[in-house]
Amino acid sequence: MQSISRYFMIWLASARYSLVRATMFRGDLFIWSTVELLWISVNVVVIAVIYSHTRTVAGWSQYEMLLLVGTSMLIQRFLMGFFWSGIFEMGRNVRSGLFDFTLAQPGDPLFMASTRKLELDGLLNSVVAGGLVAYSAWKLGLHPGAGALLLYGCMVACGVVIHYSALVMAMSLAFWITSSQGVEGSYFSLMEFSRLPREAFKGLASTIFVWVLPVVIVSNGPARELLHGFQPSWAAGLSAATAAWFVLAVIVFRRGLRRYTSASS
Amino acid sequence: MIKYTQSFLVGLQSNLVYRWNFAVRSVFWFFHLVVVFILWGAVFASNPAVGGFSFRQTLTYFVVIFVLQFFIGAFNEDYQISEDIRNGLINQFLLKPINYFAYRLSVFAAARVVSGAFGILALVIALPFFRGYLELPHDAWRILLAVPAMALTAIIQFSIAYIFGLLAFWFLDIQGFVILSMAVENLLGGQIVPLDLLPHTAFNILRFLPFFYQAYFPASIITGRQGLDFAVQGLAIQAFWAFALVCLAEFVWRRGLRHHTAAGG
Hints:
The complex is a heterodimer of chains A (about 260) and B (about 260). Chain A is mainly alpha-helical and about 260 residues long. Chain A contains 11 helices and no strands. In chain A, helix 3 (about 60-95) runs parallel beside helix 7 (about 145-170), helix 3 (about 60-95) packs antiparallel against helix 10 and helix 7 packs antiparallel against helix 10. Chain A is globular, with a radius of gyration of 19 Å. By secondary structure, chain B is an all-alpha fold. In chain B, about 75% of the residues lie in helices and about 0% in strands. Chain B contains 11 helices and no strands. The interface of A and B includes residues 28, 42 and 181 of A.
């Protein structure tokens, strides 16, 4: 318990530092907020274009799809806000040897590396993504109660952990390959699947992207919970995947860490 | 010319060092194709044609875009250029009789040879899955026009990346601008949806923007989405944009140098 509160205090100090930094570089905050907003807009435009040529995609209407994409983005914005910068820099620091500074800090290296910075732009745009979900729910005539919203929140949190784990594993490749530059793109490629409805996956694709890689259930779980109410199988599947992926990410990171030889020395 | 040939050869070697990055990227680009296949497969499940094109034609379009990006797309040239400026490495080019644009262009060409090889490799691996879904027209004029269109696309893509990289003369961190432009380029360049699926007015406006020629234009020639007249007119507009962007790159370089301070010994 003492350890948790110590880590919470460390995280709070990092958050305070990030907040001060963000207010110092206001132009930067504006640009990154615009970037995030633009990516959300791109996705909305794509849905609008696709649905101008069809009425349903795998049985999902335009606003159901928008709710799904909004949920996927909400998860991704939380990841961006809380963890992205730290993990992204980790890949580069491993190559340059600057990762030594992370290792020298008094805490678990993965925690220290991934919570070093908080990105306000990502967190600000999570409000936009949340707005997209709320707007879609309103257009669909959904009226979820407090319990449903709480469960939705928990499932989104599970999604963030899964995304975090996938990103840690992708960036941990830096311990094995010469440079992790561009590898972060692999995370985005993989997470594209989370914007697709479960019903679109058939055969081998269903096995890989629904059952082996939890990229589909990450967003479909919470979205379905809002659309169709509590579904125990989805909640259980998502919880199990969250635990498994987090453990796997920690193992991969620690195995990688053993290979780290401090390039600067 | 010899010095740029040497730059090309050195670039070839240094890019081969990062072969695993290209390999990882190819694998995940393949995932992107799978997303496209699943999404558009779901769209076409309830529509025999979308925008006048069949599923096979649409999938072929995305496969061609995929291959083109590996051969002529700018990946992280902007980042490399900004790092040259930020770290002061640019100073060595100012002291030598070498044109930085030409040097970077030769390194870009070398990188594309390596990434193109991996793109082809990824395609060969993916071909057994996609072969039955590909449909390319056999008109000879398409090949004749596609070759200069691809060369001009490479120049446009590189020039835009170069200009964004040069922003490091004015800004400490240009990643925000780069990702901002990436969102715009991906959407308006037709990498996310074929531009001919957009409303007619939007399509006609986009025809006169450089983004249109970053991916959609050569892909539309190769895949038969546009006819001969359109291709010839497009080639003229594309040549204009390639010329204009090279001029703009030179202008930004000159203005940027005025801001540059070469510090250190």
